[in-house]
Amino acid sequence: MKLSEIVTPERVLVLEEGEHLTKRECLERLSGLLAHGIPAPPGRILAVLEEREALQSTGIGDGVAMPHGTLEDAAGQVGALLICPGGVDFETIDDRPANILFAVVGPKQAVEHLKVLARVSKVLRSAGFRERLLGQRDASAAFDLLSAEDDAVSG
Question: How far apart, in whole angstroms, are the C-alpha atoms of residue 32 and residue 12?
Fold first, then answer.
């Protein structure tokens, strides 16, 4: 599954340079973005993301976090991208701030959910791509860059 199938330009947000959010504020913003693709209020989506974060941080390191969870209201996998140039303390495994937050929410018991998380990880693996993504200053350009990288990455 391509990331462009689960993310739309409306579900991408690039914070202003110097704008700093807490982890919870980032999850709130992501929940609002995800609500554009899931028939559930942002507060319910936020609860799902926070419940997963309570188990263990989804900050995978190298400036990346992948908050995710399941929700019965989701008809399929839905993604959102939040770019934080100033970084956010996301309790990552390498103790470095997260700058790229890619959230995924999908239906319960969906094998596709794990495949999507693996795809996100694969697309965000390249340090050069992450740097280029962080250099984008608007959502449309960030979405276009993500889509192009997704097309270029095999598998």
Answer: 11
Whole-angstrom Cα distance, residue 24 to residue 123?
25
Express each pLDDT in 10-61 by its tens digit.
Answer: 999 999 988 989 999 999 999 999 999 999 999 999 999 999 999 999 999 9
> Strand 64-65 vs strand 59-61: parallel, antiparallel, or unpaired?
antiparallel
**How far is the CA of 110 from the CAs of 76, 107, 115, in angstroms?**
9, 6, 9
Assigned CATH for 3-152: 3.40.930.10
Against a cut of 0.85, is the pTM above it?
yes
Q: Identify the CA nearest to 6 among candidates 129, 154, 83, 105.
A: 105
Domain ranges of the chain: 3-152
Question: Is residue 79 within 8 Å of 43, Cβ to Cβ?
Answer: no
Contact 7, 79 (CB under 8 A): yes
CA atoms in the 13 A half-sphere facing the CB of 43: 0
What CA–CA distance (Å, rounded) separates 127 from 109? Answer: 32
